[in-house]
UniProtKB/TrEMBL annotation:
Residues annotated as signal peptide: none
Pfam families for this protein: GerE, Response_reg
Domain annotation Response regulatory: ranges: 3-120
Assigned keywords, A-Z: DNA-binding, Phosphoprotein, Transcription, Transcription regulation
Identification of the protein by name: Response regulator transcription factor
InterPro entries referenced in this protein's UniProt entry, alphabetically: CheY-like_superfamily, NreC/VraR/RcsB-like_REC, Sig_transdc_resp-reg_C-effctor, Sig_transdc_resp-reg_receiver, Tscrpt_reg_LuxR_C, WalR-like
The organism's place on the tree of life at top rank: Bacteria
Modified residues (4-aspartylphosphate): D54
Domain (HTH luxR-type) ranges: 147-212
Coiled-coil positions: none
Positions of transmembrane segments: none
Amino acid sequence: MTSVLVADDQILVRAGLAALIRAAPGFEVVGEAADGRQAVELAVRLRPQVVLMDIRMPGADGIAATARIVAAARPAPRVLVLTTFDLDEYVYAALRAGASGFLLKETPPDRLLAAIRTVADGDTLLAPSVTRRLVEAFVPPARAGDATPALTPLTARETEILRLVGTGRTNAAIAQSLVVSEATVKTHLARLMSKLDLSSRAQVVVTAYETGLIVPGRREV
């Protein structure tokens, strides 16, 4: 069973989402939150696999709540942001905070359920090319290309894999490029994510840019 916490301040929307998820085989709703603060409390206490998170809520918005959940809950649940606001800055902020995906509330029920399964399995819902476009558009220019001590804990191999993930490559493509097994890539990726306290592949991409490891506009090989 995939356990889900639903967070939305509109009671009808929240109840509808919860009912939809409960009716689908293989899912269970472990809790419902009416605001960002409650979402954080329930996520830490109930430890769902996925948090379905609205963005605009009282108490703490969905982006702030996502960052707190990712920082406080161990293991961190996957956060799937669901909103009516189709704005790139919201997507970027959500990914930077640790969200694993982003959907509009107009998404059909079958696609919503598929998205929950996707992020529960550890994948990012946005395509790598879309993630990279967003990051390149919103990464703070002053930090691009700057040396940073943030990467000091990483080995040379982990740093290289961080850079390659930042370019949008899959684990299989990275394995082929480095002439190692895909399992080896996954191991290094898991270690670097642990060292840098990252919870999603999207956050890895953001980190590769914000640490200056990748410079927007420069061709990466």
